[in-house]
Amino acid sequence: MKLRELLNRAVKPILNERFGDLALSVPEFDDDENEESSDAVDELGSLSGLGLVIEYENSKGEKSQRVITCRQLSVEAEKHYLKAYCHHRKALRTFRLDRVVDIFDPTTGESLSPVQAFFAQYSPDKVTRSGLSWGMSVGRRADLIAVLNALVFLARCDREFHPSEMSCLEKALTNFWIRLEVPGDPDFDDILAYSRRLSPDGETFWLALHRFKEDSILESVFRRHAQMLIEADGVIREEEAYWSLEIDQFFSE
User: What is the pTM of this model?
Assistant: First the structure.
């Protein structure tokens, strides 16, 4: 299986026990979300890879809960839309934000409402305009988000997130800060807490690799810690071996 064939898959977020009965299916009614083309490769959005549970109401007033992995925010005709991978439909969907009734952190189970206030932290197709910049420039924060998404994708490709793999993320963060000479000290707690909520899909991973290929330092930081992460728990699983080979092939082309 080639890398491009996996672009539209996403790793399901780790779910809190309160969502234990949330089956990966939705009621048998018509969706009014737009299904996205699987051929398009978009730029990374400001919340790419972020896992959420949403309660959504369609145009007929019918409600369902969805596990999603965010892709991008957009504004069309003054309406805000969230493009995301829906784990229930197993496809990319676009949700109208004014129809999202509630949102939850999939890991802790806590409500993140009010909905509009939560998404106001993010600019459509841009880096956040709130305190989530971690003291970095727009471009540098985008670099860090790409590194975090790529490493978290690898950490979760075998459906597990071992504590030693989280330690690798912390080392990658330190190395990123030093190699790219980011001013100040990294907010480890906040950045690592953010990374735990990521559940990037294949396209997010693919776009991150392309970003690294354009910057030798980013490539070095990623490849060093990708290998470290794959070997972190002492067992190299089939999925990890596969992605390790794909990464080597990608950067050798």
Answer: 0.58
